[in-house]
Specification:
By secondary structure, this protein is mainly α. It is built from 19 helices and no strands. It has 2 domains: about 130 residues, Farnesyl Diphosphate Synthase (Orthogonal Bundle), CATH 1.10.600; about 190 residues, Farnesyl Diphosphate Synthase, CATH 1.10.600. The N and C termini lie far apart (about 40 Å).
Amino acid sequence: MNQYIEMLQMVSRTFTLSIEKLPAILRDSIALAYLLLRVSDCLEDHDVIEVDRKIHLLELWDEILAGQQPVGDLIQAVNDLDATDPEVYVVKHADGLIDFLHTMPVDIQNFIVERVARTTLGMARWQQHGPFVENEAAMDDYMHQVAGRVGYLLTDLFAWYSPVIRQRKDELMPLSREYGLALQTVNIIRGLRKDYERGWVFVPETYMQEVGLTRDQFFAPGNEDKALQVVNRLADKAETHLRHGLEYIAAFPIHQHRIRLACMWPLFFAVKTLSMSRNNINVLVGEVKMTRQDVSAIMKKTAVMGWSNRWLTHYYEHINHVAS
């Protein structure tokens, strides 16, 4: 398992912090699921792969997950990509991930394969769609494919592990989608410039039209005031999802503190990042990031007080206010 945690650290240090906090079987299964999803992410996002090839590779990956094609076909198909890129490195070690998957309990295998496969096909469909988002409904559809389904997967695994969570699964499922959409909306805000430079704009075109901007004008010098109106509207949307995400965490039993922590850290990191992004021109020209001190403070305070739902609500408001 250590090699997969090391691989996880290569592609996401912050999510590694959360995953390592979980009980062993959840740590292993969620780390594996995350890496399998990073294979999909790499195939979708890689900046030198042409669209038609991306679609083919994503569909091939779906067939591999279903056991219909050998994983070696994918590894051979990406032989030309630079393995020093951490994302590509994960793809080129997909055979080990598939082997590890097959050591998991059957129910866990089924949960992971179903959710990762549907996410992968959703990514393929969006590659066919093209690098624009017509309206908020289209944005929500994209985010559901790449993040809402991940929320479902977390709930599948948590409910498998905990009988109490299993009893609340119907209540948790819609909130888990909101949790995924919350994190993804903040990711979109944080990655606005980077996505634009690779040809994608996930901001709904209707949002930009309402302030008289096109997608190119959105990033052009001189339009900052109007562009920030759009950023703040995205932030309002993200905050709505985040508050539902907080309900998701609060619905977990208090005695499952490690599961709660593993979910609350990404959420509070997102709250902090979002608050830093409001009215911040740096969102349009680069990327807004928390400091290590911010990360450490959130982790320490939640580890001590995160068992209390009342405190979580207070801390949410505190981070939101202080960062703003």
